[in-house]
Amino acid sequence: MKTWAIALLVLALLVGASCLVGVVDLFGTSLDGLMVLAVSRLPRTFAALLAGAGLALAGVVVQMSVQNRLVEPGLVGTPESAMLGLLLVTLAAPGAALIVKMSVAAGTALIGTSGFLWLARHVPRRDPVLLPLIGLIYGGIIGAAVLWLAWTTDLVQYVGVWQSGEFSGVLQGRYELLWIVAGVAGLLWLAADRITLLGLGEDAARSLGLDYRQTLLIGLILVAVIVSVVVVSVGSIPFVGLVVPNIVSRWRGDNLRRNLPLVAWLGGCTVLGCDIIGRLIRYPYEIPAGTVFAVLGAGLFLWLLHAAPRRANG
């Protein structure tokens, strides 16, 4: 109970700070402070929490799917595949509704992630570092294809927005798709035991009565939905799905059902914290939260690479 009390206190402090930090003074301006809070600050806060929680949960599913703690959606080409779908739908139907763009992005993200899983089946598991390196190359190839297509169609600015991972443009009416993450989180919690069996490998999971391929497909669909919603709404944020699950696992062990709420909490809090830091470093200008988290996550990733041999497949 003490742990959850501390978690709620930290969350409340971060939400309060996010609502108060900004160029507009809510208490000393001629503008309507309540309107600024309702239209901008609260939606931005909710968007950061939902995006961080969703990416962290997606990281858990991907790690269990490939039995490797050193991978996450950003290291298996999922965001790049979602961007490819967004680029294609932008070219084919520029005026399409946001839900249509998200659906196309989710489809291409699912295809791209499935392609990485196919590659992962042919990668030797002796070295846990080899798989994320292959994921980096795989994602880089897809990203290069996206950039080439954007360059030839004069849409490079769109790719820049999708890669930025920033919340300054979040307003009421432009972030609500992110609430899909909350529904997906509930589904993941219900399927936590099945996802745990995925982490045992195909043979062990089948021996315990799990429909391995069906469960894997469901997990990948949920990951694709989360990543596409985040990319469409705020852009790609690297390392969240890698760092957060590993920290929780080292802190609380590998009880996935017990850990999922903590993973969501830590993911949301860290992304919101990075967004607040990005607003303060060069106040009144902003640094994207994705950039702040990338610097933090890169250092933690190097630490995980160094420490990985002890619990690479735990």
Structure described in brief:
The protein is an all-alpha fold and 314 residues long.
Topology (elements, then pairings):
Elements: H1 2-20, H2 33-66, H3 78-92, H4 98-120, H5 130-152, H6 156-164, H7 180-190, H8 192-198, H9 202-207, H10 212-233, H11 240-252, H12 256-281, H13 289-311
Helix pairs in contact: 1-2, 1-12, 2-7, 2-8, 2-10, 2-11, 2-12, 3-4, 3-5, 3-10, 4-10, 5-6, 7-10, 7-12, 11-12, 11-13, 12-13
Notes on the structure:
This protein is mostly helical. The chain has a single domain (44-306), classed as ABC transporter involved in vitamin B12 uptake, BtuC, CATH 1.10.3470.10. Helices cover 74% and strands 0% of the residues. The chain has 13 helices and no strands. It has helices at residues 2-20, 33-66, 78-92, 98-120, 130-152, 156-164, 180-190, 192-198, 202-207, 212-233, 240-252, 256-281, 289-311. Helix 2 runs antiparallel to helix 10 (212-233), helix 7 runs antiparallel to helix 10 and helix 7 (180-190) runs antiparallel to helix 12 (256-281). The protein is globular. The model is unreliable at 309-314 (pLDDT under 50).
Keywords:
ABC transporter involved in vitamin B12 uptake, BtuC, 314 residues, mainly alpha, 74% helix
- Stated plainly, the CATH topology is called ABC transporter involved in vitamin B12 uptake, BtuC
Distance between the termini: 27 Å
- Largest sheet properties: none
Which CATH class applies here? Mainly Alpha
Q: How many DSSP E strands?
A: 0
Strand-and-helix sequence, N→C? HHHHHHHHHHHHH
Question: In percent, how much strand structure appears in the residues?
Answer: under 5%
Overall shape: globular
Question: Which segments are poorly predicted (pLDDT under 50) over 5 or more consecutive residues?
Answer: 309-314
Q: What count of structural domains? A: 1
Mean pLDDT: 86
- Overall radius of gyration: 19 Å
Pairing-aware structural class of the strands and helices? mainly alpha
The percentage helix is over 70%
> What would you give as the CATH superfamily?
ABC transporter involved in vitamin B12 uptake, BtuC
Name given to the CATH architecture: Orthogonal Bundle
Number of helices: 13
